[in-house]
Structures
1.
Amino acid sequence: EAGVTQFPSHSVIEKGQTVTLRCDPISGHDNLYWYRRVMGKEIKFLLHFVKESKQDESGMPNNRFLAERTGGTYSTLKVQPAELEDSGVYFCASRPTREPRGTDTQYFGPGTRLTVL
Amino acid sequence: DQQVKQNSPSLSVQEGRISILNCDYTNSMFDYFLWYKKYPAEGPTFLISISSIKDKNEDGRFTVFLNKSAKHLSLHIVPSQPGDSAVYFCAASGYLYNSGGSNYKLTFGKGTLLTVNP
């Protein structure tokens, strides 16, 4: 079974530009999460999709960030316009819904390292 | 306000000895705890988890202990191997309601860098 994949692995852009990150979850996983780790700090929750619906976007930093999950499959996270403080590693994770409560294991992708200059 | 704390940024042990990584949490709504291992340039890899209805879970060389009254959990690795050298993240989850419904989002600690010396 293929794991969570993310594209690109690295992105270097200038302040004010737009970047779109992509995540392909494990096939059949209805739940998709985005997280971000800023240098040296903890991994922080950004938002959660159940299929194509946003369940919780309370972690999104501001309205420069837009996440979509059309068709309930892959997801994109767009940053427009990018600022210096957006630099970090963006992780995507997925989790199946059929697991009973008590097995909340999320499976992470390798991350996209975003550098805003 | 950090709800999950890993107070040791790093830990160094000798190969074959026990590694003990600690984690504290403050939110009593957390009822599921996980440990992830992360190598450089890779995503976190799930290692082991424990539900709040248990106080111990074991998987091979890895054992997680949960002390709910102290809001503390620990990961024991015995025996430690050089390949275990990585950053270990403690994470917690709970049936936390928000305006959109239930959510099992993970709250992470800052991680502990474990180095196992040959």
2.
Amino acid sequence: AQSVTQPDIHITVSEGASLELRCNYSYGATPYLFWYVQSPGQGLQLLLKYFSGDTLVQGIKGFEAEFKRSQSSFNLRKPSVHWSDAAEYFCAVASSGAGSYQLTFGKGTKLSVIP
Amino acid sequence: EPEVTQTPSHQVTQMGQEVILRCVPISNHLYFYWYRQILGQKVEFLVSFYNNEISEKSEIFDDQFSVERPDGSNFTLKIRSTKLEDSAMYFCASSAPSDMGNTIYFGEGSWLTVV
């Protein structure tokens, strides 16, 4: 069965500092990987996704993630964090059903940003 | 940008009552999902729905739950005889056919409180 581990429950960074959120997955085949962000009281917004091809993927809001098969990782990065980035971030891996996708989420990493 | 809309945003119900959560998926999407997030826990897959039938369901999705697409636009989750442990945020989601990118778009969630 697939699983996702986000080792950091809570991270605090200063505004303008760089950010890396860790994600490790367990999946038997080539994974489809996603990062979602959830602001307080909001739904899940897709930041970026990896299906195939270039292992460095760019997303919205200046985020990027790198797929490293050898490390079973898909870490999320941003070079300079803004206060509005404070939110909870979820990594997810997808298994494909009959045309549909079942996402397995990690427990999330809460990001706090210090002004 | 098209979005998934959910109603109600928050519902309080007494234990044992039936609840219907409603969703309007993105109009050209064909796959529909329900996920839930118990407070402080992971987002969990409940069910996927395609071509007017369930395509996958998790072990959480037992006989207490049912889904329906009563017309061309709505997608509902019914929870019969609610229990305290059904208190959670319920997310509806939808996705397009695989040739359109396979991104799963989430609504903002319906927060269910069972008392």
